[in-house]
Design goal:
The protein has 417 residues and is α+β, with helices and mostly antiparallel strands. Helices cover 38% and strands 18% of the residues. It has 14 helices and 12 strands. The protein has a 5-stranded mixed β-sheet. Helix 12 packs antiparallel against helix 13.
Length: 417
């Protein structure tokens, strides 16, 4: 009999908050633990622009939501403390976690900056039974890295991810197929992976309110009403990962970052704000690895899961944030359809170590000036933190505070899109 697969899904609890707290606890302007107060990671406190990237449990009790404008969040929670993101710190913490996970399996699939799937099939003799091994990993991350995670265990990635979203923080949960009726079916349908607000509304109009009701609904009726999405979410409700959560690509030749927001974006300016954040993180990672890319791709997914993807070949290698962002904005303008946007992604592909210096349309002197500026910015931010310096082209802009870091408020692969 073929041995079933065993997957772990590791998800950092309040990643941006815990990682920022880990770096800044005790510093001026930071309390001992920002996770224990009404706090958020997001926009600049002076210009009061931007969106919430992450929020504490205390802020959540006031109704603060990831992805909503900070002005609205402050209306809900007048005492909300907002701290700037520090992407360099987030990358360091993420890499340390991925390195630790690699000690347990050669198959670690990074799903976002704070999430990973680990194929643990056949490792029982090395590390013990799945629950025992997951507890060891959870405790090691807490004790050695200083932050906490939830770990979900199952026979496929979908159920492992669903399990990790159960009670938090610092917990291990299982969701094996035989446990689905008891543990998953009673949950509201919105708790199922892949279901957003518009899909929830459609299902409620069909009289479907729980995951169990969706699992037992008429498949053909769902397909008539929701096309292929109806078939997919019904399979998901039954614990069947019919649409793979992780694609099987070849060697990674690109650097990407994407974010799925719980609140759909309807204005192009809001999408540009998120694009800037994504471009900044991708460019910083390129420079960190001493790599450059020549093709910029922007991907959008709307509230009905329709996807658009446009790309541009720059004709030369680059790791410049400004150049990548300018290209991304051109692509966004080409593909904008005035539809609510749920996922935004940016990728720089055909990445390579530049063996020789290429002349560009910007001119030799300007290119060298930009290269030195990017290097100086990275060095200063890495040593003194995110707000130590801002790019002059972004000063007084509502996007300037977004120059580093945006989480996948979960929810898509960072390294391969």
């Amino acid at each position: 009999m073929k041995r079933p697969h065993i997957y772990f899904h590791i998800d950092v609890n309040s990643a941006f908050l815990s990682w920022s707290s880990l770096l800044h606890s005790g510093e001026e302007g930071y309390p001992e633990d920002i996770q224990k107060i009404p706090a958020a990671i997001g926009g600049n406190e002076q210009n009061r622009h931007g969106i919430v990237l992450a929020k504490s449990v205390e802020a959540k009790r006031y109704g603060v939501c990831t992805g909503e404008p900070l002005a609205r969040a402050r209306e809900k929670c007048p005492g909300l403390l907002v701290f700037p993101p520090d992407y360099d710190q987030y990358v360091r913490c993420s890499r340390k976690m991925m390195q630790l996970l690699a000690e347990y399996s050669p198959c670690v699939e990074q799903y976002s900056i704070d999430e990973a799937f680990v194929d643990m099939t056949g490792t029982e003799k090395l590390f013990g039974e799945p629950l025992e091994c997951a507890e060891k990993i959870r405790m090691r991350i807490r004790e050695e890295l200083g932050f906490t995670v939830n770990i979900g265990i199952s026979t496929n990635r979908l159920l492992a991810k669903m399990a990790s979203d159960f009670e938090k923080p610092d917990k291990v949960h299982t969701l094996f197929p035989e446990e689905v009726p008891e543990k998953m079916w009673p949950l509201p349908v919105r708790e199922l992976f892949g279901i957003g607000r518009s899909t929830e509304k459609k299902l409620e109009e069909l009289g479907i309110h729980t995951i169990g009701e969706l699992a037992q609904s008429d498949r053909e009726a769902l397909i008539r009403n929701m096309k292929s999405q109806g078939a997919m979410i019904r399979d998901y409700a039954n614990g069947i990962e019919s649409v793979p959560m992780v694609s099987k690509g070849g060697e990674n030749k690109g650097y990407g970052n994407s974010v799925t927001l719980p609140s759909d974006l309807t204005e192009m300016e809001d999408v540009r704000l998120v694009l800037l954040s994504l471009c900044e993180t991708v460019a910083a990672r390129l420079r960190m690895d001493q790599m450059k890319g020549s093709v910029v791709t922007v991907q959008l997914v709307d509230s009905s899961f329709r996807r658009w993807s446009h790309q541009e070949n720059l004709g030369h290698l680059t790791d410049s944030t400004n150049e990548i962002y300018t290209s991304a904005c051109r692509l966004l303008k080409e593909m904008w359809k005035n539809r609510p946007v749920r996922l935004i992604g940016v990728q720089v592909s055909k990445a390579a170590k530049e063996e020789y210096h290429q002349m560009t349309l910007f001119g030799e002197a300007e290119t060298e000036k930009q290269r030195k500026l990017d290097a100086a910015i990275d060095a200063i931010r890495g040593k003194y933190g995110e707000d130590a310096i801002k790019r002059t082209s972004f000063l007084n802009s509502q996007y300037s505070h977004m120059s580093k870091g945006l989480n996948q408020a979960k929810r898509k692969k960072q390294d391969k899109m």
